[in-house]
Design a protein that fits this description.
Structural class of chain A: alpha+beta
Number of strands of chain B: 9
CATH class of chain B: Alpha Beta
Number of helices of chain A: 25
CATH class of the largest domain in chain A: Alpha Beta
Distance between the termini of chain A: 43 Å
Largest sheet of chain A: 6 strands, mixed
Distance between the termini of chain B: 29 Å
Number of strands of chain A: 36
Largest sheet of chain B: 3 strands, mixed
Number of domains of chain B: 1
Structural class of chain B: alpha+beta
Order of helices and strands of chain B: EHEEHEEHEEHHEHE
CATH architecture of the largest domain in chain A: 3-Layer(aba) Sandwich
Strand content of chain B: 15-25%
Oligomer: heterodimer
Largest interface: A-B, 71 and 50 residues
Shape of chain A: globular
CATH superfamily of the largest domain in chain A: Dimethylsulfoxide Reductase, domain 2
Strand order of the largest sheet of chain A: 5-4-24-23-22-6
Low-confidence stretches of chain B: 120-131
Low-confidence stretches of chain A: 1-11
CATH topology of chain B: Alpha-Beta Plaits
CATH architecture of chain B: 2-Layer Sandwich
Number of domains of chain A: 3
Radius of gyration of chain A: 27 Å
Radius of gyration of chain B: 17 Å
Mean pLDDT of chain A: 93
């Protein structure tokens, strides 16, 4: 028993407490780590983090296991066995940093001189992905950031792209302080995975206690669904149909929408010509609206404008045209709830009732005054994530979500969805208002983001962004295109892959494709903490320090300013380095650290560093020195890195007018004209360069419409595979990374479902399957063993497998536990939504009972 | 002197297991020992299904059957109501485990050598102050993180809980958070028919 009589957090044991932030997912929760005799012994939440208030999740609390893991890589490694393959021992030999770095830098230099695109820079250290992406940009490769495999399987890509063009939202957060009705679609917001879990869990629990109604649309009884007021078991990859039915009720049946807002705050009154592009005023070039008062068309911002029409058909200069809102009405006429029911399995009456409840909760016309400013009050949110979006039709589904929110005027206002902007707040800068184009429509911030890829032929990007200009990320296509570059029009073959905090095997699809691609490369380099499935194919492994031994400086909140530090709580235990220091070292040795195009210059641009706190273009810095300049620059010289090391963070809430309506008087799109325009341009380019004839490549440009419409997923079709298999993120895992943690694995194995292939109990009875049966999960692409778990809580045609497990790695804690879902996902264009950059994450499988020796449990 | 107790909000608990990991790391528990657990139960049939999460720990009963059953005096109640186990006096007879209607007591069976996150390659002792914290052959349980409580802190499971589903405080103080919740939201004790008078209460919302 401690003698300490007073209450001081720092006196629990006998050590000292170091502040930092967790890096076991991207949310950067404040932590304190107790260090005794140079050993970290305990992690707790930092109660001075205003975001989390000292709370922390299971993963964060279990983080010491990563530090003490005896299977960590302790020194640079170089392969001696030329044969590469699954579970083939690379026979690594230990090497010095100099030897390993020079080997990598020599290849980098050769590629840089030849064609930088021959390097695939697969960089996905999520807490600093923008900074690491800058390394690839400085090198000059078109494939940088995210991963070789892509986050297209892990993430909700359309969320970023559609959210940004709609209201500048990289990510959306429900304003739970005011929200009273929340529909989650394929999202565990506030229940496990997703953004800002620790804070969202508290806020959502508070809101539910205060009477918020929670409805969850998900094929599986997720944690959220299990706690919701209502769960709607939807057929996988049909959320789009549900939302189209929802929109139909709002605009056709109930006529529930914020008409005044649509007229003044959106592009809903803009006139569309027969080509479905805006009719522009010949004089000013500005989009026209039809002035009902004057009985003629006028530019949208004409000071004499009366009431612009939302509905009707008009003739302007002899051309037939309709307001964008009328176009939405026309396009959704057939999307009745009865139609939606046949597609998504949610009863028409339920869709009708929910749309009515939602619209009533949105309380169009209501206002609230906060700090002297009056805002619209719209306490109703639709919020989706990967479950709705990670499908070929996911971008259209996300557009449908935003269409509902725009109809209600519920974006960026109290009670609605708030945008986390890509402004410089992430690096410590102030919140910045969004700008607007000459067409009056909002333009998002996109610092360090890639919103639009210019067409080029031959293409540059191995993920085919040249043919998918709006795609957020299609990294999963890289293994496909690099195996047959000519087929897709490339005039080069990649030679080298640098993997930094990613594991293609556990986050891509079809393993044969990934394995063949990895084998084909001349040099595969991995910056890693452990050996994993992918390092079996690596030539050089550079050992990274764990998050308890390295620096970071970030603001991951959506409504605070300031920064939060990540710092070494002890010196590196082994001969490891901060991954960013490894990148700096490689840039130096390969000759692209300095000068106007070097990595230093790229970091200056990305972090918004300016004199006197910018990096010199001719000096080498440690990453800690870079962060020190970042801290100084964004505080006007007031704070340095040491200040953050002592205090942890200076996060403070932004003022209400820096949180709400950051688009101010810019209009939000009800009609996604930029998507339509990008599609038109893509079509022209594809035609001009005869891509279809030359390469027999049919790039589908049909989804590039301004209004969402129903498009089935390729998995919707009857065949001999009778289950849709979905994957989900559990509260115990961050991708596959946490499967090496014995504390978390011990708990995961006690969970009734996490290690199993979970199916509906009634379906199981029909198929003769029982709880605990060992089965083969079979698809066209893989055959993986699994154990059946039964539940009442899943759509009858669906099997659910938790992500993060099913590892086949030499790490004994992770190896062979659970089942891997994504091996069943094909890597091809048919299963890729090229509009927003999505991979179809549902697969068709059958479950076949294993026999004999195979039937024994793992 | 306070009389410590806890309230669980069943509506707020989402089964995230942060409490369990906090407890395991705070108390350096061997693999198989849990001082707090969250039970999950599916309720209903498709499609009318929901899920209940029920967190549990030692109820620190006013009338603790484990204390009564203990022949060696190892189990005792502190003045502030925390039911403790003195490992020096515990003879490992398991009478307490049999007597406890809540299954809250566990025998440390593993020899200490087998402890550690990675089997043989165990992490350094998480707390050098108490190197012999858990002795094989003793029957142990949650002590409301008495060491933290003595420092004026709440138990680790309470401090970390993301949804604040665990509310800890002085039951003798009518205005403490748990007292108010018990009063206004009909706090219910587990297995009241056992007449153990738990200091842990459950509220539905």
């Amino acid at each position: 028993m401690s003698d300490a009589a007073t209450a001081d957090f720092r006196e629990i044991g006998s050590g000292h407490w170091v502040r930092s932030h967790c890096q076991q997912c991207f949310n950067a929760c404040g932590i304190r780590v107790e260090v005794v005799d140079g050993n970290p012994v305990r992690i707790r939440g930092d109660e001075d983090d205003p975001n989390t208030r000292g709370h922390l999740c299971a993963r964060g609390l279990a983080g010491l296991a990563k530090f003490y893991d005896p299977h960590r890589i302790r020194t640079p490694l170089i392969r001696t066995n030329p044969e590469k393959g699954r579970r083939v021992d690379p026979k690594f030999r230990e090497a010095s940093w100099d030897e390993a770095l020079d080997l990598v830098a020599d290849k980098l230099r050769a590629i840089h001189a030849d064609n930088p695109n021959k390097l695939i820079a697969s960089l996905w250290p999520y807490e600093k992905y923008v900074q690491s992406s800058a390394w690839g940009t400085a090198f000059g490769t078109a494939k940088t950031g995210f991963s070789f495999s892509g986050v297209s399987n892990q993430c909700a890509n359309p969320n970023h792209f559609v959210g940004m063009i709609t209201h500048g939202a990289l990510v959306e957060f429900p304003d739970l302080e005011h929200c009273r009705y929340l529909i989650l679609l394929g999202s565990e917001y506030g229940f496990g995975a997703n953004q800002s879990f620790v804070r969202a869990a508290r806020e959502l629990a508070d809101a539910r206690e205060d009477g918020l109604k929670l409805v969850v649309v998900d094929p599986r009884l997720s944690v959220a669904a299990g706690k919701a007021d209502e769960w709607l078991p939807i057929k996988p990859a049909t959320d789009l149909a549900f939302l189209l039915g929802f929109i139909h009720v709002l605009v056709h049946e109930d006529k529930s929408y914020d008409a005044a807002w649509l007229r003044d705050g959106t592009n809903a009154p803009y006139l569309l010509g027969p080509d479905r592009n805006f009719m522009n005023d010949p004089e000013t070039g500005k989009p026209l609206v039809f002035d009902e008062t004057a009985g003629r068309a006028r530019p949208f911002d004409d000071p004499d404008l009366g009431r612009p029409a939302l509905e009707g058909t008009f003739k302007v200069d002899g051309v037939d045209c309709v307001p964008a809102f009328q176009h939405l009405i026309d396009e959704t006429r057939d999307n009745t709830p009865e139609w939606a029911e046949t597609v998504c399995d949610i009863p028409a009456a339920t869709i009708r009732r929910l749309a009515g409840e939602f619209a009533a909760a949105a309380s169009v016309g209501a206002t609230v005054t906060i700090d002297g400013t009056e805002y619209p009050l719209r306490p109703a949110c639709l919020l989706s994530y990967r479950g709705l979006q990670a499908h070929t039709n996911g971008t259209l589904a996300m557009m449908a979500q935003e269409t509902v929110m725009v109809l209600m005027g519920a974006l960026g206002v109290p009670g609605g969805l708030i945008a986390k902007s890509m402004d410089s707040r992430r690096f410590g800068g102030p919140p910045e208002l969004m700008s607007k184009g000459a067409d009056g429509i909002v333009r998002p911030h996109a610092t360090g983001w890639h919103l639009y890829t210019k067409f080029s032929y031959p293409p540059k990007s191995l993920e085919l962004r040249d043919y998918g200009p709006l795609a957020c990320d299609m990294g999963h296509l890289v293994p496909l295109t690099m195996l047959e570059p000519e087929k897709y029009g490339f005039d080069y073959t990649p030679e080298m892959l640098l993997i930094y905090h990613s594991n293609p095997f556990t986050n891509a699809g079809h393993h044969d494709v990934v394995a063949r691609a990895l084998k084909q490369l001349d040099l595969v380099v991995s910056i890693n903490i452990y050996l994993d499935e992918s390092t079996d194919y690596a030539d050089v492994v550079l050992p990274e320090s764990t998050y308890l031994e390295r620096f970071n400086l970030i603001n991951w909140t959506y409504d605070m300013r300031g920064l939060q530090v990540g710092q070494p709580v002890v010196d590196p235990r082994h001969d490891t380095r901060d991954g960013m220091d490894i990148l700096i070292e490689l840039a130096d040795r390969a000759g692209f650290l300095f000068g106007d195009d070097g990595f230093n210059a790229a970091l200056n641009r990305t972090l918004g560093l300016s004199a006197p706190h910018a990096l010199s273009l001719e000096r080498k810095y440690s990453y800690a020195e870079v962060l020190d300049l970042q801290a100084r620059c964004h505080s006007g010289g007031e704070r340095d890195l040491a200040w953050y090391q002592e205090h942890g963070n200076n996060l403070t809430p932004v003022a209400p007018d820096e949180k709400y309506r950051m688009y101010r008087d810019a209009r939000l799109p009800l009609y996604f004209n930029s998507i339509k325009a990008a599609g038109d341009e893509l079509q022209r380019n594809l035609k001009e360069h005869r891509i279809a004839e030359r390469h027999r490549l049919e790039i589908d440009t049909s989804p590039y419409r301004g209004i969402p419409f129903w498009q089935p997923s390729p998995v919707h079709g009857a065949d001999e595979f009778d289950f849709y298999v979905i994957s989900y993120k559990s509260y115990m895992t961050t991708y596959g990374d946490t499967a090496t943690n014995p504390l978390l694995m011990a708990l995961s194995e006690r969970d009734p479902h996490l290690m199993k292939v979970v199916i509906n109990a009634h379906t199981a009875k029909q198929k003769g399957l029982r709880d605990g049966d060992v089965v083969w999960v079979e698809s066209l692409y893989a055959r993986e063993r699994g154990v059946i778990g039964l539940t009442e809580g899943i759509h009858p045609e669906t099997a659910a497998i938790s992500g993060g497990f099913g590892r086949f790695t030499r790490h004994p804690v992770a190896d062979g536990k659970g089942t891997l879902q994504n091996a069943h996902l094909p890597i091809d264009l048919a299963h890729t939504g090229m509009l927003g950059g999505t991979m179809e994450t549902v697969a068709r499988v059958r479950l076949v009972r294993a026999r004999g020796r195979d039937a024994r449990a793992h | 002197m306070a009389r410590w107790g806890m309230v669980f909000s069943l509506a707020r608990c989402i089964g995230c297991n942060a409490c369990v990991v906090a407890c395991k790391t705070e108390n350096e528990l061997p693999d198989s020992i849990f001082f707090t657990r969250t039970f999950v139960e599916e309720v209903g049939t498709f499609p009318e299904v929901s899920r209940a999460y029920v967190p549990t720990l030692c109820n620190h009963c006013e009338d603790a059957p484990c204390e009564k059953a203990c022949p060696s005096g190892a189990t005792y109640t502190r003045e502030d109501g925390i039911v403790m186990v003195d490992q020096d006096r515990c003879i490992g007879c398991s009478a307490c485990a049999v007597a406890c209607p809540y299954d809250a007591r566990s025998m440390i069976e593993q020899p200490k050598e087998n402890r550690g996150l990675f089997g043989g390659a165990k992490a350094p002792a998480a707390d050098p102050e108490t190197p012999d914290r858990w002795r094989a052959g003793t029957v142990v349980k949650c002590d409301f993180c008495s060491r933290r409580v003595d420092q004026g802190l709440s138990p680790a499971c309470v401090a970390v809980c993301p949804t604040e589903a665990r509310i800890f405080g002085d039951l003798d103080d009518a205005e403490s958070a748990p007292s108010r919740l018990i009063r206004t939201r009909n706090g219910a004790q587990p297995l009241p028919e056992k007449n153990t008078r738990p200091k842990v209460f459950y509220i539905d919302y």
